[in-house]
Specification:
Number of helices: 1
Bound molecules: zinc ion
Helix content: 10-25%
Strand order of the largest sheet: 2-1-3
């Protein structure tokens, strides 16, 4: 199943064996204290389940 980051819209597939690592790493990207990118969107990530529909 795929899921989308509520802040930036990036999608992830939880069939990925590294999904937990990728999500944690992605969440940290949205934390001001750990990011160095000026264009990062800061906030708490909500993972929006997209189901198995590839159209979403
Ligand atoms: Zn994001």
């Amino acid at each position: 199943m795929r899921m989308r980051c509520s802040l930036c819209g990036m999608t992830f597939d939880d069939a990925d064996p590294l999904i937990l690592y990728r999500k944690r790493r992605h969440e940290s990207w949205h934390v001001p204290s750990t990011t160095y990118r000026r264009n990062a969107i800061w906030g708490s990530v909500l993972w929006i389940p997209l189901g198995d529909n590839p159209e979403k």
